[in-house]
Amino acid sequence: MSKNLFILKLHHHVKFHGPKPKINVILKYGERQVQDVEDNKKKETLVEMIGIVKRFPGVIANDNVDFTLMPGEVHALLGENGAGKTTLMNILYGLYRPDAGMIKIEGKTVSISSPSRAIKLGIGMVHQNFRLIPTHTVAENVILNSPNTGFFINWQKIYDELKKQISKYGWRINPEARVWQLSAGEKQQVEILKLLYRGSRILIFDEPTSVLTPQESRMLFTTMRKMAEEGKGVVLITHKLEEALSVSDRVTVMRKGKVVLVKSTSMTTREELALAMIGRQEITQLPSQGSSKPSVPILSIRNLVVEGDKEEIAVNDASFDIYKGEILGIAGVSGNGQVELAEAIARIRKIKSGKILLEGRDVSSYSPRQMYENGVAYIPAEGARTGVVSDLTVMENMILKCYRYPPYSDKLLIKWREAAKLANMLVEKYQIVAPSINAKVKTLSGGNVQRLVLARELLGNPLTSPRLIIAVYPTSGLDIGAAEYVRTNLIEMRNEGAGILLISEDLDELLRMSNRIAVMYGGRIVGVFEGSQASKEVIGMLMARGAG
Amino acid sequence: MVVAEASTIEAAITGAVAAGTIYLLAATGEVLTERSGILNLGLEGIMMMGASASFIFTLCFNHLAGIVASMIIGALMALLLAFFSVTLRLNQVVTGLALTMFGTGLSGFICAPEVRSSIVRTINPAVPEEVALLNQAPRLLEVPIPILKDLPIVGRAFFTHNLIVYASIIFAVSMWVLLFKTKWGLSIRSVGENPAMADALGVNVYRIRYLSTMIGGALGGLAGAYIFLGYQPFWVEQITRGRGFIALALVILAAWSPLRAILVAYLFGGVEAFQYRVPLLGLGAQTPQFVLMLPYAVTILTLIFLSFSKVKRRISAPAALGTPYTREE
Known about the structure:
The structure holds two protein chains of two kinds. Chain A is an alpha/beta fold. Chain A has 20 helices and 20 strands. Chain A folds into three domains: 1-38, no CATH class; 39-278, P-loop containing nucleotide triphosphate hydrolases (Rossmann fold, 3-Layer(aba) Sandwich), CATH 3.40.50; 297-545, 3-Layer(aba) Sandwich (Rossmann fold), CATH 3.40.50. In chain A, helix 17 (446-459) runs parallel beside helix 18. By secondary structure, chain B is mostly helical. Chain B has a single domain (2-139, 147-314), classed as ABC transporter involved in vitamin B12 uptake, BtuC (Orthogonal Bundle), CATH 1.10.3470. In chain B, helix 3 runs antiparallel to helix 4 (92-110). The termini of chain B are far apart.
């Protein structure tokens, strides 16, 4: 054993940029720790952040935080929303100035006053929202203001350089393509190219998979490992445990502005990380599932065909029913028509052919408002973007759908007193953290915006509570607590007799919540399973290939 | 007969180029300004002041002084607009229109014969009073280009003009090279599309917007100088007659490309030259008004065309046009 170990160590030293996890598996924990220390002495630390403090009005976002990044590692920065991960990295990227603390890059103390200073120091960040110009080409986006370009731009040379880089990572984007033509995953690759073109050695990814399909995520992780192999330091900001476990070498967990755990990924467990993240055991007790028996179909879809944004067929000949007191989960890799399906049913997207029946009535030509009046609630994907008007107040957003009807208005005027009563009631019931009901929604955190959308939609219209709820990725981007809250509320509505169409990418969530699961692939419904009979493997296979 | 036809076409094109140069200069500058994200609705006022400055300084000294003065005054007025819209982040429509009214009023004042005469004679006492009182200044001379001017049809139409006409074509082509073939151009276009992103990559958004607006203003001033020195040989109040606004429409029609601007400018120039020929052709009395309306009608049609989603993705106004930029903190 000790001989083996010696060989491994040698191997490790010769090529310490290589993928570490393999070695970690074999080494015993204690020895691994010793080795870490040895390694750290030999390698120069890439980033060292010491005693970082950052206060915002009313909150300490970073409370004496230490963070280190080694060359050749993927370092996961894990924590719930609002734990201070992004703030810490924004400080490293020069977007915020820390109130106290010190930053060292390769051993030298630096002051990072702006992003352009950070870029000069080799620090690059891929933001959650892409910072790209859609009408410009990939190459134009990449070389903007880069010092490596001459005054007159030699496009051919740049295309060649970029093509080399692109094929090195196994990507398929064309540097001459316009960015609006690209998928989310490809746009992210352009962001990465931007950083690499500027010679970044420290790459920060802020929740990079939130906009990606599972395949694109896997591809991104491969890219991250490749970059680590090249000796770069990669930081992955995430709130998803699985991501941290599957791709990182080391993990730092933050909670409420403090670092609560720093460990080699191989030495930790899912449970340990979860506990560190939320500070309590992940207790989840959803309301019982079997209580409601399907009876009358509330929604019937017949041979529905819907076009996507690029006039491609997004939903192809879909037919299904949702019964009272039932959750129908739609499983599928994102981009297989689920969103278009939901939008068509909510009547905010045109139908090419087919029928939508609400309690037997043909509603294919209804307006969104008519759907609302008939008891349909719609929780859109990206609630913060499409579900609220962020410059209006919490109260105004709460009555955004019901303000036309009494008691919230008479023929002419809005009755603000009634509106305030409603808003206060909902804020309390849904535990929305907001300075007041008159605060603009843009001052709320993502989880609270989602609660607001939920509160408004589940209220129903003044005549009836919702009979059909369309929920599109209702828990995506939420921390564990908020996500459980959303799920509990949906299940309660189900138990009260509403029919729910639940679209999610989280298969575990679907399996836990749905009475039946339909799988969408390439715009078609390729399988429907009873919740009790659905197996993760079979559904996964259908999601990936469209056929078992 | 054939000869007469050829000369008619020649004369028409010559007229189109002469009139179109006004639009070309103003539009070339405005393309740059708008590409950086600033909408300069003060263009009309800037042109008016450019014409006034060229008048006064040509009287005082010579054409060169007049032209330089017009560009300086144009740049200074644009600087004012840039200060309002970039630094103070005021509404660009309101400040732009205010600048137009300001320029129109001030131009009318300083070029009123008595005022003008006293300004001119204060700057250069050697100018005789009767010269300063005259609503005229020496015209810019045509400089035919040898050999090229002898080309059939286009020779005379394009190569027998004054130097500003040639310069305007060079400016437009250079502007295109600057915008699409150089690093600066990429920065300018990016600032107009997404200033936050450009800022994050270290582009100085404020500097680019100030410079683009000022260069655009200088070209606007030159356009004004050209109207008075090279196109219309006598001074009238409000000499630009709304051409600044036509130039703004032209920028849209040219879809923010200086090369397309050349074509569209001569088209509009042709329309303008045509209205003076209408009486000669014996058409109805209302025809000139109808013809003058055409550029605007075409612009509205273009805007409708640009609003189609398929076109929009390829050609559209700079995304950040008219939006002040604030760095988030």
